[in-house]
Amino acid sequence: MKREDSLNQSDKAVNFWLCAGLLAILLASTLARDITRPFTGLHSWAQASGAWAARSHARYGLGYTKGMSTWAVGQPPTENPKRYLDHPQLAVLAKAGVMALFGINEWVPRVMGIMIALATFLIFLKILRGLLDDKTALLSGLLYAMFPLTGYFGIGGWSTLFSFSAIWFYLVSIGSLKNGPQPSAIHKFGLAATLFMALQFGWTGFFYAFAIGLHYVAQCIFRRRLPDKSLLAILVFAPLSSLALNFIIMAGGYGWDYTKIIELYKWRSAKGEMSQFLWGAWFAKFWEFALTNFTLPILITAIVYLTFGQLLVFMEPRPNKGNKRRSRQFPQFWLFVITPVSQMLILRGALWKHQTWEFPFGPFIAIAAALGVMLLADILKKVHRRLAAVGTAVLMGIFLTFCIIGTNYYYAVRWQPQEKIRMFKMLNQKIPSDKALLSFDPFIVNQNKAKGGFYRPEIAWYLDREIVQAKSFAEVQKHALTGRYPYYLVPAVPQLSPLISQLQKRYKFEYIPGVQGERTKDGKFLKAGMMPYIIFDLNTKISK
After folding, report:
1. Which helix (H) or strand (E) holds 119?
2. Fewest CB atoms within 10 A around its CB: which of 48, 374, 459, 488?
3. Which CA distances in Å does 128 have to 253, 255, 517?
4. Mean pLDDT in the chain?
5. In the beta sheet, which residues pair with residue 438?
């Protein structure tokens, strides 16, 4: 009998991972969509920023970058480059290593992102298989893979990969996974290593570490037992030592000026990119992003399950054997909810322009919605099994339809006009790498005084030349005499007509037409517009 049970369990495992493989293929195919596209789409700023810093490592070498994210352009680069120290450094270094092997282009970091997303996704399913029945685990994985947030951005990068791994090691160590391996020293070592590395790759790792530590302490209190000293030490010292190392690296990069770190935290924990912090506006933005990240039908299903559905779940008697959960009870609820809630509240100022700040809600919503679907199926089965099958199929069809629409919208959004990118690519070809662009607009952005100004990342990636500002005819003349600036770029707008008129009398020029921005039928932002530009060739004077 035991042998038959063992074979049955083996068959179930094979079937589960075959289905998991199909879900992974679905996720990979979605993320690989238009993989060679330029950095113009949703969050092109962040994507180009990381690629730009990685390019500096790959092109100029670690001797120049000092192992820190560096924003430099041209060849040779400036002696005193701008460094980006707001985030842990390993993620960009890993991206640079892949660029050094496969080339400096847009698709290389995206391929690496797909590989990380697939590994993270499979670990997520491994965790769920130890917490849920196979059908619910796979349904949770399907919803997670279908989310527009996941289909466009992935699952969160290296930090999330290590964080999910830490959750698995933690659940094994406390014996909370059914059919899981026996806890051992190797699992504690894995927990310590993954907690440490999660923070070395991203700040999100801190919130996962916080959730795991708080969950363990609360569990010990609730069950009235003393904690495992070695496990507690790992949960405290592994993330805190990693956090301390990050702060030391940041402080060293800032010339040991700790006030910049404090200013960055104040910025991200308060108003962020808004003029003032208002809770009403914050919750409105949170819901706006959630609607597009996870879709309305899935959110409604998750919310109904987490509210009214709980009444049905807890009306069921608890199983007699051990401390097993009720059949549709959310497994390890607090472990999955503490991470997103703590991140959103502690660094609430980061939400305003970042859909990706809702990444940690993905697993929580996927599990809740899947349990909601299964609970509905249980109810409908009491009426008729065929009704349960039809009802579930209809609901999943609605989910799929909304997710496809949402993912298509994300891929259609253009933060940067294609025409502007083509213009900067053209200038990149025309301007030698050791020369610079003279421009009316310096294309410098200033997010916060602690960060300082820097080139708009998409422009720095495609132009790859220094930009020097000149706002008057005299300044243009002065810079033209140096021979360092072959071209002058100016917006062709009525306010600058006097300057443009003077320049047209002296230099040959090329007119770049502008484009209108676009919105969807329901008024959502779709494509950014572009004003017209004129490019003056400072090497070709018009004869009088």
Report:
1. helix 107-129
2. 374
3. 41, 45, 44
4. 93
5. 468, 488
Q: What is the rounded (10 degree) CA torsion for 211, 215, 221, 224? A: -160
Query: What are the E-state strand segments in 224-321?
Result: none
Pairing mode of beta strands 437-439, 82-83? unpaired
**Angstrom distance (rounded) from CA 435 to CA 465:** 7
Provide the token pair at 181: 């391996």
Residue type, 214: L
Q: In terms of Cα–Cα distance, which of 449, 78, 74, 458 is closest to 254? A: 449
| Residue 446 pLDDT | 85
Do β-strands 518-519 and 525-527 pair in parallel, antiparallel, or remain unpaired? Answer: antiparallel
For residue 272, the model assigns a pLDDT of 80
pLDDT digit string, tens, across residues 509-529: 999 999 999 999 888 999 999
Predicted local distance difference test score (pLDDT) of residue 314: 87
- The residue whose two tokens read 């920023």 is 49
Average pLDDT over residues 367-393: 95
Per-residue pLDDT, 9: 75
Which H or E run includes 454? strand 454-455
> pTM, whole model, 2 decimals?
0.94
61 vs 74: CA distance, rounded Å? 14
Q: Structure tokens of 173?
A: 């160590």
Q: Is the pLDDT of residue 3 over 60?
A: no
Q: How far apart are CA 485 and CA 503, in angstroms?
A: 15
The structure tokens listed for 143 are: 């919803």
Tokens encoding 386 = 């065929």
